[in-house]
Amino acid sequence: MSKFRKKGGNELPPISTASLPDIVFMLLFFFMVATVLRKNDLKVENILPNADQTEKLDKTRTVFIYIGKPSAQYRNAGTESRIQIGDKFVDVKEVKGAVFEEINKLRDELRDYVTVALKVDADANTGIVNDVKKELREANLPKIIYITTQQEAVQ
Amino acid sequence: MAKRSAPEINAGSMADIAFLLLIFFLVTTTIDKDKGLIRQLPPPIDENAPPPPVIKNKNLFIVQVNRNNDLLVENELMELKDLRQAAIDFLDNGGISAGEEGYCDYCQGDRLSDSSDNPNKAIISLTSDRLTDYDTYVAIQNELGAAYNFLRDREAQKRYGWKFTEKSAELNEGKIVGEAAKDAVKEKLSVIKDLFPFKLTEAEAKQN
């Protein structure tokens, strides 16, 4: 009997999954390359305001200043809006020094024409932002950018 | 003794490991898309500088915002959504009559005598309170920027057939190839910029 039966003639051959790892690795490499690990970890709340007349930021010659209320695990820093540059909270008077410290971390050829990017929480007040701007003006760093999310500003 | 062949390594779990890594990177990735409003701060205060020239009242567009985020434009209450058009009307006014010095031949405004003389004379003054919300402040900056962008786009469209904002974005993203082409675009952009120079002064409201 069995002599005449065709060997597995009716069954579909199993799909080979041998190339699955390759595909997954390809995706993996893409994300590894695209990933920018956050350099400084954010200690303030940072929900950005909306604007639609925006321009893109050239990342390489930029120093970031974060302003917002300290987030939950940093409540000992108070509940008022604070300024964060690099990894630490700074006072308005220390802004200049901290910004120059960050500029010194940039590559030599990029140190001229530095842009200061202000990432300010939408709930913050303009007072603290104006204080920072005054410091930047005195430090002769005139180019600033208010980082926003891309959305219409007027609802 | 019989020769044993080396056992084959089971590669079945390779996919699992790769997936694990993949998911890790998927979660940690933030594809950066920082965009924003670029502004220029004034130079540091120089005490020896000569006193600034007196600006005619009609060339000044005064925007004030208080701690309740109410907007006062030229001493009248205004909604945020009307600010863009009001700023465009002011900048585009071109109040000097034809034939006189400083006549604005590219303006399409109402040419009122009590509004700005010429776009390069027109200055917008923004006064904010310390307690103004930052998102309102950014929205105002955005609307004022939009007014300039609208006028620059219109002028570039008329002269060169493309939009100012689109072309300058292309230039910044390196989409324009070749030094000669870049220089040509830069020159045209600066012509438009000179026609509608961005003049915004900022001040903080005095505390009483």
Automatic annotation (TrEMBL), chain A:
A Pfam family matched in the record: ExbD
MF annotations from Gene Ontology: transmembrane transporter activity
TM ranges: 20-37
GO cellular component terms given for this protein: plasma membrane
GO term, biological process aspect, one: protein transport
Location(s) in or outside the cell: Cell membrane
Keyword annotations of the record: Cell membrane, Membrane, Protein transport, Transmembrane, Transmembrane helix, Transport
N-terminal signal peptide: none
Membrane association type: Single-pass membrane protein; Single-pass type II membrane protein
Family of the protein in this entry: Belongs to the ExbD/TolR family.
Name of the protein in its database record: Biopolymer transporter ExbD
Organism: Dokdonia sinensis
TrEMBL record, chain B:
Places the protein is found: Cell membrane
GO terms assigned for molecular function: transmembrane transporter activity
Keyword Mitochondrion: no
Membrane topology type: Single-pass membrane protein; Single-pass type II membrane protein
Superkingdom: Bacteria
GO CC list: plasma membrane
GO biological process, one term: protein transport
Keyword check for Transport: yes
One Pfam match: ExbD
The family this protein is said to belong to: Belongs to the ExbD/TolR family.
The protein's name in its UniProt record: Biopolymer transporter ExbD
